[in-house]
Write a structure and sequence with these properties.
This protein is α/β, with parallel strands linked by helices. It has a single domain, classed as Ribokinase (UDP-N-acetylmuramoyl-L-alanine:D-glutamate ligase, 3-Layer(aba) Sandwich), CATH 3.40.1190. It has 8 helices and 9 strands. Helix 1 crosses helix 7, helix 2 packs parallel to helix 3 and helix 5 packs across helix 6. The longest helix has 14 residues. The chain starts with a strand and ends in a 10-residue tail after the last helix.
C-alpha cells in the first residue's frame, strides 16, 4: 500500500517489541503513514521491567536525523525517550529549525518506576523541548512532575494541562489512564479550549500504550487531521466551557 504521508519517529529500541520504535512503526503503518525510525536509546527490557538504558551518542543521533531530514523531508515527528541532556537539546533545536512539528511523549519513568531520563535531560526537557513542541502527551504522573500540580481529579488535570501549555507547546493531552474510576478520561487543552475524551476502562496495564497513543496522534496529524479530531476517541466531543 502506498503511504499517504511520511513522518519521523525518534524513540528507543525495546527488544520485547512492546514499546518504542517497534510500536511506532506499526501504528504509523496501520494508519497509512510511512515511518522513518531513528534510534535515540537502546534498552534492555521485557514486558515486566526495564533493566538497562543506554542513550546513543549525540553525534550519532544527529547523523541519523540529518540524513532523514535532508532526504525524506518529514513535516511531523513523534518524539519518545531521549534520556540524555545532549540528545534532548539536539532534538529541541534541530527539528524546529528544519520545519518539523513535534508530538512529544515526555517519558520520565517506566511503569515499573525505573528512570528513563537523566537529571540534566529532565531540565532540558522542561526548558527547551516542551516549549519547542507542537503538542505533548504526558500521562497523569508525568503531568504532575512537569507542572508541579498534584492531580487527584479532572479539575486538577485541567490545571496541569493549562500550566504545561503555558510553557510553550500549542497543545497538551493529559492521558487519564492513571486516574481512578470506571472510565479513563483524556483531557486536551488546545487553542484556548478544553476537550474531554471518555473511554471505558479496560482493566489492562498494557506495555507501550503511551507510545501507541503519541505515534497514532502524529500519524493522524501528518494526514491532515485537525488536533481535536486526531485526539478524539469513539465519539465526537465539543469544547468544555
Amino acid at each position: 500500500m502506498e503511504p499517504k504521508a511520511k513522518a519521523l519517529a525518534v524513540a528507543g529500541l525495546d527488544p520485547s517489541g512492546g514499546a518504542g520504535l517497534s510500536v511506532d512503526i506499526r501504528a504509523f503503518t496501520a494508519l497509512g503513514v510511512y515511518c522513518a525510525p531513528v534510534i535515540s536509546v537502546i534498552t534492555v527490557q521485557d514486558t515486566r521491567g526495564v533493566y538497562r538504558v543506554e542513550p546513543v551518542d549525540t553525534g550519532l543521533l544527529e547523523g541519523q536525523l540529518k540524513a532523514v531530514l535532508e532526504d525524506l523531508k518529514p513535516e511531523w515527528a513523534k518524539i519518545g525517550i531521549l534520556y540524555s541532556e545532549g540528545n534532548v537539546k539536539l532534538v529541541a533545536s534541530l527539528l524546529p529549525e528544519s520545519g518539523v512539528r513535534m508530538v512529544v511523549d515526555p517519558i520520565i519513568r517506566a511503569g515499573t518506576g525505573e528512570a528513563l531520563i537523566s537529571p540534566g535531560g529532565l531540565e532540558a526537557l522542561k526548558e527547551e523541548l516542551l516549549p519547542a513542541s507542537f503538542i505533548i502527551t504526558p500521562n497523569v504522573r508525568e503531568a504532575e512532575e512537569l507542572s508541579g500540580i498534584r492531580i487527584r481529579g479532572l479539575k486538577d488535570v485541567r490545571k496541569a494541562a493549562k500550566a504545561l501549555a503555558d510553557l510553550g507547546p500549542k497543545g497538551v493531552v493529559v492521558k487519564g489512564g492513571h486516574l481512578n474510576g470506571a472510565y479513563a478520561t483524556d483531557v486536551l487543552y488546545y487553542d484556548g479550549s478544553f476537550y474531554e475524551f471518555k473511554r471505558p476502562r479496560l482493566g489492562l496495564d498494557a506495555h507501550g500504550t503511551g507510545c501507541v497513543f503519541s505515534s497514532a496522534l502524529t500519524a493522524l496529524l501528518a494526514l491532515g487531521e485537525e488536533v481535536p479530531e486526531a485526539v478524539r476517541a469513539e465519539e465526537k466531543t465539543q469544547p468544555v466551557p
